[in-house]
Amino acid sequence: MSGSGRTRAVVAAYSAAVALLVAGPLLAPGYLLLRDAVSTPRSYPTDAALGLGDAAPRAVPQDALLAALSSFGDGGLVVKAILLCALWAAGYGAAALARELLRASLGPQLIAATVALWNPYVAERLLQGHWSLLAGYAALPWTALTAYHLRSAATVKRRRRRRGGTAARRAIIRTASAWAALAGSLAAAGLTPTGALLAGATAIALVHRRQLPGTLVLWLAASAPWLVATVLSGAGAEPSDPAGIAAFAARAEPGLGTLGSLAGLGGIWNADAVPDSRTTPLAAIATLVLLAIVALGLRSVATGGADPDNRHVRRALLLLAAIAILFPALGATAWGMHTMEWLVAHVPGAGLLRDTQKYAALAMPAFALCAAAGCAATARRLLRADTDSAMERPAITYPTTSDLTTARPETTYPTTRPARTSPATMAAVTAVFAALIVLPLYDLAWGVGGAVRPVHYPPGWQQVAERMDGPGDVAVLPGGMFRKFRYSGASPVLDPAPRMLPNDVLQTGELPVRGRTVSGEGARAREVEKLLLHGGAPADLARLGVGWILVERTTPGPLGASASTLAQVEQVYEDTALALYRVPDVIERGASTTTQRSIAIAAHVLWAALLIAGPLIALGTRVRSRRRPRN
Question: What's the CA dihedral at 291, 297, 301, 305 to 10 degrees?
């Protein structure tokens, strides 16, 4: 194995080790059920999974992918595998970006991987349950890298076109490979709409202006599942509740303020979804250390690089980082929130921007580059200091025996530093930088202090899914979308019923945040919930398309006068945790048409094709080019 191959293997192994250190508890049997994260043994291709339900398609194509893969294997394993691969890809991708743009050696690459994996953003999104958003986060350095390759391939193509022949053909192949890799990166990020926006912004900022139309087409194709679902269902086209802006605004951490929290890659809106260390003075220490390490390499990243394409990509990433920090900070000010409230109330789809702290992820590639450059610069300074010190210390040369009577010791000054000290110095600097990044956020280790861990569902869930053999949507009691089960821990979790059951589950979309309720898009679900809590007649439920009522008995929540309704319907299953009732004479409504489902499935197939074929084409092209003999 060559030296570069060994370096890549070490970086890959290091990234895998850190990813396992972060998410190691998930290797145990069970399912991820924490706040917004819901994994289940089996999920189904319902209308909601395709984004055609009443709510906006926020989990598309994520839910459809899980529905497809869980028909072949355990859905919980799929989620764990995606999350672990995403964490590994984030670290290795940041190292690869530093290797390509900075020509960084092993030590700086390891620091870039550490910054990408060990930061408050990763910890907070894990605690919030945003495992699929971390897939988009992991795709950012790869998107930046493929965008750089696309720029440089276009430059090489222009140069070689004049020469013609083999050189021109190789340039065309290189360009096609770069486009395929970019398609795969955008599709991987597009597991959620927010991830698609993050990667799309990165790609558009980095590619050459002549490549913008092609990049936009690829982004639209990679985002087809949720864009098509929005058009077909119409749910996402409605304005969002302006109350969500203040509820989801970035939050100031102790001793930092909102801007300082965001600059340290923290500041999530939910104060309960943060590691314990971020509630102490360690938050300020960790942020100052991270910013100091980034500052050490800022000048090198901003001014270095003789290649114009390399220089453009570096500076564009720095600009993206500045915007990613300033935008959420401004969004948390009074006038910023007022502006955002107007946008979400009047511009359809603007609700995607309400959780502004999500977009701090755009700073990660630049932070990783600057940290790698800072590590290399610090090692060079130390080596230079050692050299200067050695030059100042006189070296004594003693005369030979024949000259003992006349000679005096001669003083000479070495002009070069011994080469053998360089690896040791770089290793020492790398170790110190890694410790400074890791130690203040010590509780990110092992599932953020054990909070991110698998749970086990009661067997009744499978029984309920098997008994649900008729038409109609499912209404769930108690009211609300969040649950607290004995087996899921103290944190509220999203109701697993929509992903556990074969029929569509009605959800209001209402979110309790910071003591207020943010309205959702589920108007029919709200009507059904109100009817149940007031003890409405089963015939009224059937008219609204409700064919089933599921009662989750072990979670707190409002039940109202629902006992009156339940007494009038047939009970088909009951245990200590769950009870399932059938509503007679259901009138199906709200279901998508065959044409709508076909179009939505086609959009998902297009996304999956980009996700699979893009990397395969890029990898195959690279392998063939390496095997081709050179003159």
Answer: -170
